Amino acid sequence: GIGINMTSTSTLLISASPPELSGEVGGLRGTAANLGTALGTALVGAVLISTLATSASTAVLSNAVLKPEFKQKLNPDSVTFVSNAQLEAITTKIKNLSERERQELVQINQVVRAEALQRSSLFMAAVALLAWGFTYPLPNRLLSGEISGARRLGG
């Protein structure tokens, strides 16, 4: 979503600033974009991993097919994204785990990964809408002269 806004935002910022400050304004815009990208990635990653760990723990602990001994060994802090093939390879090394339990774990893995991706995507959409809500009125405020010290676009 950042690419859609970048050109118009850059044009608005640079054209609204005094010509002698256009380099500084462009640099600040780039810094803000980089900072936003880094923070956005970190926040979405945190939502993704926390949703994954919480959902996986809940799904495993509430599953009726899995043995209580297996559930006791679950460490929610070590839950990561793994493919179904990777999970199958890992579970084949676990002794006393039936084929039905392996299949159940793969099913849980599929559902939990999809849920984590959905929640993180919704989080990104909510943040984008929030940012849009704050920045949408800026061009009109600039054109009306409400923002003091800015020169009018096109002039």
Tell me what the structure shows:
The protein is mostly helical and 155 residues long. The protein contains six helices and no strands. The protein has helices spanning 2-16, 22-61, 68-72, 84-92, 99-135, 138-144. α1 packs antiparallel against α2.
Compute the CA-based radius of gyration: 24 Å
> So what's the overall shape?
elongated
Count the strands?
Answer: 0
Question: How many helix segments?
Answer: 6
Could you spell the SSE succession in H and E letters? HHHHHH
* Mean pLDDT score: 81
Structural class: mainly alpha
What is the topological layout?
Layout: H1 2-16, H2 22-61, H3 68-72, H4 84-92, H5 99-135, H6 138-144
Helix pairs in contact: 1-2, 2-5, 4-5
Brief description of this entry?
With 155 residues, the protein is mainly alpha-helical.
Q: Which key features would you list for this structure?
A:
single chain, mainly alpha, 0% strand
